[in-house]
Design goal:
mainly beta; 23 strands; elongated
């Protein structure tokens, strides 16, 4: 929506001021909401100062953002704003039919480069690289539309290549000092490749010194529409997840039955089968010096437990413990 104070003055060198308000403007993967103003002049080169105050990109808000732009012969160049907190440099080239190029497109904040993009689209062929350094994980999630409170710094490298309809995406992500809601993690890293509607996780590790270490790898078919899902119903799933060095002190936050726990646990989970018929199996093991309960009986000591599970079956292989210095042993399924 163009607001009433917009104007173009042809009395001397043509000058213009465009004041626009965007309400849920939807682009691929992005929704824009808020105000943008372009104030400039037209000559052999079109120059404009672009400002945004309160512009939302998905869940990320830009405050008091300003950049300078120049357009000539199909090339848009971004010129840094002196003294600006957020700066954009580089250019986007639309000068050739059916092609565009992003040349050293960078975003700086307080003098530090956060994001770098370089690449091209030639017809149906993509070749784009992107690199992020020290980006707030909360800002990153909000920019891609994930509604969650999060803190921590994230670095990533992304390579996108191939045909527009089904490109191959290779991505490495590393984060530190992560807080997702009430969960705290020291580090997280993932390396994956997305190709032909299948994500292949080469490496996944999330670590918290006070909770556990989660590791994983495997391949998962993904789909955005029901039509794609129908094509993938017989596509194989092969995922392994492992939780090691689990601290049972976290159990009171997961169950009101448990007052206090001291010990360790581990979990192995395997997901196999197809999109149409996945199967889940795994093993849970635990060793606890002491588990105190809010109800039932006061506490268990010297606990050793193993539970096997697969599809619809859960088997208690063993549960050995002491209650008031008396041993107990349970099995069943």
């Amino acid at each position: 929506k163009i607001l009433p104070k917009t104007y173009i003055d042809f009395s001397k060198m043509p000058i213009f001021k465009i004041i626009a308000e965007m309400r849920n403007v939807k682009l691929p993967g992005v929704t824009l909401f808020g105000g943008v103003t372009a104030d400039g002049r037209v000559g052999t080169v079109i120059k404009a100062d672009v400002t945004a105050d309160g512009l939302w990109i998905n869940q990320k808000q830009l405050k008091n953002f300003k950049t300078n732009m120049e357009y000539s012969d199909g090339v848009v160049a971004f010129i840094p704003e002196v003294g600006g907190v957020t700066q954009i440099t580089g250019s986007v080239d639309f000068s050739q039919p059916s092609k565009f190029f992003m040349n050293d497109l960078s975003v700086f904040e307080n003098g530090k480069r956060l994001l770098y993009i370089n690449g091209s689209k030639k017809g149906d062929d993509l070749d784009i690289t992107a690199k992020g350094e020290g980006i707030s994980i909360g800002d990153l999630l909000n920019t891609v539309g994930v509604k969650i409170t999060a803190d921590g710094d994230t670095n990533f490298n992304v390579k996108i290549a191939g045909k527009t309809e089904e490109p191959t995406v290779i991505c490495d992500v590393n984060s530190t000092g992560i807080k997702l809601g009430e969960l705290l993690f020291d580090t997280a890293s993932v390396s994956f490749q997305l190709s032909q509607n299948t994500i292949k996780i080469k490496h996944l590790k999330i670590a918290s010194a006070n909770f556990c270490v989660i590791e994983g790898k495997g391949s998962i078919p993904i789909y955005a529409t029901s039509n794609i899902k129908r094509k993938l119903v017989n596509k194989s799933i092969d995922v392994s997840l492992k939780v090691v060095n689990g601290d049972m002190a976290v159990l009171p936050t997961l169950s009101k039955l448990i007052k206090k726990a001291k010990g360790n646990f581990s979990v192995d989970i395997n997901v196999r089968g197809t999109v149409n018929r996945p199967t889940v199996s795994g093993v849970f093991t635990a060793e606890a010096d002491k588990i105190r309960f809010n109800d039932i009986f006061e506490k268990l000591t010297d606990v050793k437990c193993q539970v096997n599970f697969s599809e619809r079956k859960i088997k208690l292989k063993n549960l050995d413990a002491m209650i008031d210095k008396q041993p107990i042993s349970l099995v069943g399924e």
